[in-house]
Amino acid sequence: MREIKSIIDKLTRENFLTKEELEALLENLNEDTRDYLIQKAYDVRKLNYGNSVFLRGLIEISNICKHDCHYCGIRASNHKISRYRLSKDQILDCCHKGYLLGYRTFVLQGGEDSYFTDEILVEIIKELKTQYKDVAVTLSLGERGPESFKRLYEAGADRYLLRHETANKKLYQKLHPKMSYENRIESLYILKEIGYQVGSGFLIGLPGLKLKDYAEDLMLLKQLEPHMVGIGPFIPHPATPLKDEVGGTAYDTITLLAIIRLLLPDVLLPATTALGTVDPKGREKGFKAGANVIMPNLSPMNCREKYSLYEGKKFLGNESAEEKIKIEKNILDSGFEPILTRGDNIKWKRK
Ligand code: SAM
């Protein structure tokens, strides 16, 4: 036990561990050492971001996707869901509603839908940036390639979220038919090189993975040094090949949030909807372990149910951007401070 605490102390001091040390930490945590880890992560988040929790408005612009990721409810082979895509005006309306509510970051997320050409996205981004001088635009639209990434950045996009999903290459290839692990990782480095604030991250509880296996994901994150990291439990969806799997836990997700806060002290780290879905208190526990972002849903109400990535995905109450007062109260009640400014990573400046 002493040895585990000294590994946590080294992680806190140096923001680095070797792969062997990360594996030892993940394999040997008990209630006592896990509490110690979470306390250290809490101290570090306080030092860098105080008690702030940044609110972002999430707009799910399309559930049409050409890919067939084995875990994902909007995969191309799922013929049971009703598909939608938002028009430019609908997206701008959502942002307008969000702006009036006070949101200053809009996250446009969707499946890989070829309707959203660079031209259409450039128009949307430019329009947003002209209308609202104080907002950040985050994109999460998959692997579009270097030229597209560059055009969208030049149009004004500030951030790009692209989880690597799993650092286990064999598993990645199995779960993502016709996609390439190398391309995913290369895309992340290209996004960083262009100048975006870049977010990566991974799913917790994919079939066959043990806690110690996430050492590889953590090493990858440390090497990439992203500005944002999104992790969450994998939750099975009934219309996917992984429907009978067990899925990830809030407990493991919170342990990993704490380790990521210590590895990357100034990272923007969401307490995700998936975490709030597997545990109603998951987000508050996440804030205490170092998370400092939430992304309530701003999509049109009649589309939310259709963006069903996993079973039971929440989009009302605390997950609904319209419930801002309730969300803010819950954040305050758990001892944190809701913040509605852009909330950039403290180390980032536009090139
Ligand atoms: N197409 C974009 C991309 O590839 O990054 C963004 C959309 S994708 C649906 C957004 C995220 O949903 C993925 O990065 C994945 O981690 C998460 N996701 C998909 N299916 C999930 C599931 N069953 N459980 C938890 N998260 C899931």
Descriptive overview:
The protein is α/β, with parallel strands linked by helices and 351 residues long. The protein is built from 14 helices and eleven strands. A six-stranded parallel β-sheet has the order 2-3-4-5-6-8. Helix 3 (31-49) crosses helix 10. The longest helix is centred in the first third of the chain and has 19 residues, at 31-49. The chain starts with a helix and ends in a 12-residue tail after the last strand. The model has no long low-confidence stretch (mean pLDDT 97). It binds S-adenosylmethionine.
Keywords:
14 helices, 11 strands, 351 residues, alpha/beta
How do the strands and helices of this protein lay out in sequence?
Elements: H1 2-14, H2 19-28, H3 31-49, E1 52-55, E2 57-62, H4 88-101, E3 105-110, H5 118-131, E4 136-140, H6 146-155, E5 159-161, H7 169-175, H8 181-194, E6 197-200, E7 203-204, H9 214-224, E8 228-229, E9 232-233, H10 250-263, H11 273-278, H12 282-288, E10 293-294, H13 301-304, H14 324-333, E11 337-339
Parallel strand pairs: 1-10, 1-11, 2-3, 3-4, 4-5, 5-6, 6-8, 7-9
Helix pairs in contact: 1-3, 2-9, 3-10, 4-5, 5-6, 6-8
The protein binds S-adenosylmethionine (SAM).
Offer a quick outline of the entry.
This protein is of the alpha/beta class and 351 residues long.
Strand content: 5-15%
Could you say which overall geometry the principal axes of the C-alpha atoms support?
A: globular
Could you give the order of the helices and strands?
HHHEEHEHEHEHHEEHEEHHHEHHE
Provide the gyration radius in Å.
19 Å
**Total number of strands:** 11
